[in-house]
Amino acid sequence: MALESEDIRKTFGYFTALGGVTLKVKRGEFLALFGRNGAGKTTFLKIAATLVKPTHGRLRIEGIDVREEPEEARRRIGFLSHNTYLYRDLTPIENLRFFGRLYDVQDLDERIHSLIDRVGLQRRASDPVRSFSRGLHQRLGLARVMLHDPSLILLDEPYTGLDANAVDTLNQMLDEAISAGKTIILTTHDLEQGLRAASRAIIIDRGKIVFTGDARDPATRDAYRQYIRVGVTP
Questions:
Q1: What is the rounded CA–CA span in Å between residue 156 and residue 160?
Q2: Residue 18: band (very low, low, confident or very high) from pLDDT cuts 50, 70, 90
Q3: Rounded to an integer, what distance in angstroms lies between the CA atom of residue 113 and that of residue 222?
Q4: Considering only Cβ atoms within 10 Å of each terminal Cβ, which end of the chain, N or C, has fewer?
Q5: Which listed CATH number (1.20.140.10, 1.20.120.530, 3.40.47.10, 3.40.50.300) goes with 3-76+150-228?
Q6: Which helix H or strand E contains 172, and what residues bound it?
């Protein structure tokens, strides 16, 4: 298993963000995670990324208990959220060099330039990140996620702020990651993008999993209509 969560719960004061999430994700699986705002998607992904500690429950990443060996688990994870974790006064090259040294990435400069080229930032590679639009932040954030070649990729609303070309680039990189045997868990409000390459879909509502099924099963769209209550093209 790439990820195993057992009765994961998270409370913030009197508010329950997650009410007991038990989930197993196989290696090489592409999981699309849907839910309304506040349903618990982001909280679960942050716990899976070891950035937030659960109030209750256990989490294993590729068999590694996160409580016992957090650093070892993190080496296997790439996480992209609304916060791209980039340093605004550094350039793309400087940002990626910093993160690459943290992960002891081999042939670092070659890897950096390859990823910068891949996400279309060649012309902005020496510009400070503070001058970047939201979409460019996302592009560089994606390069940061892929830099250390993680086996588990966690993406929280990765399409936010991307133009059509950047969406195509992201989708190509996800397809390549799946072909390479990576595991992907992606949250999005966009049903079509979420189901485009996913093998399984899950819906979280009020902190609990309320639906799980094959991404291509018509029941997935029916469940999306039921729980998220937005118009969906048949």
A1: 9
A2: very high
A3: 44
A4: C
A5: 3.40.50.300
A6: helix 164-179
Cβ contact 148:177 at 8 Å: no
CA angle 72/73/78 to nearest 5° reads 120
Please name which of 4, 23, 17 lies closest in space to residue 211, comparing C-alpha atoms: 23
For residue 178, the one-letter residue type is: I
Structure tokens, 179: 């072909």
Pairing of strands 30-34, 200-205: parallel
Distance (Å, whole) CA 203 – CA 215 = 11
- What's the pTM? 0.93
Structure tokens at 214: 């094959």
The residue type found at 147 is: L
Evaluate whether 139 touches 131 at the Cβ level (below 8 Å).
no
> What residue type is 96 in one-letter code?
L
Give the start-to-end residue ranges of the domains of the chain.
3-76+150-228, 91-148
Q: Which pLDDT score is estimated for 231?
A: 43
Q: What kind and span of H or E run contains 195?
A: helix 191-195
